[in-house]
Design a protein that fits this description.
about 120 residues, alpha+beta, two-stranded antiparallel ribbon, 5 helices
Length: about 120
């Protein structure tokens, strides 16, 4: 378990592509929207907003994993709850995130397919 958290000290002992077999066995309708798996955008559902960061897990899908960028976890955004917010229009409250979602295909994580060598900077 320790090797899979953070930067692994022994990259050869990590199963980098745990979903490879499962992806091959999925019916076509499950993978037809694969382009939608890669946008680096906020996902919004009413009051909840979470940043989708596929650049942090591309190695699991056979791509070259670069050192992930820092993610801004907005503590104010994470502090929102439903108490006293019966009349809130969440589309207005989260308009910035809704716009970001509308442009999701222009904000895709671009990673290259390929093998990573043990000397790659990700393992430093």
């Amino acid at each position: 378990m320790g090797a899979a958290v953070g930067r692994p000290s022994q990259p050869t002992k990590v199963v980098w592509q745990p979903y490879e077999v499962e992806l091959e066995d999925l019916p076509p309708w499950c993978v037809v929207g694969r382009a939608m798996w890669m946008p680096s955008v906020s996902l919004a559902c009413f009051l909840l907003v979470e940043k989708h960061t596929p650049d942090r897990v591309v190695r699991q899908f056979g791509m070259i994993q670069e050192v992930p960028r820092a993610v801004n976890t907005d503590t104010v955004l994470h502090g929102i709850d439903l108490m006293g917010k019966v009349g809130v229009d969440w589309t207005q409250k989260h308009a910035e995130h809704v716009r970001e979602w509308g442009n999701r295909l222009q904000q895709r994580c671009e990673a290259m397919l390929g093998d990573m060598y043990p000397t790659h900077e990700y393992f430093d």
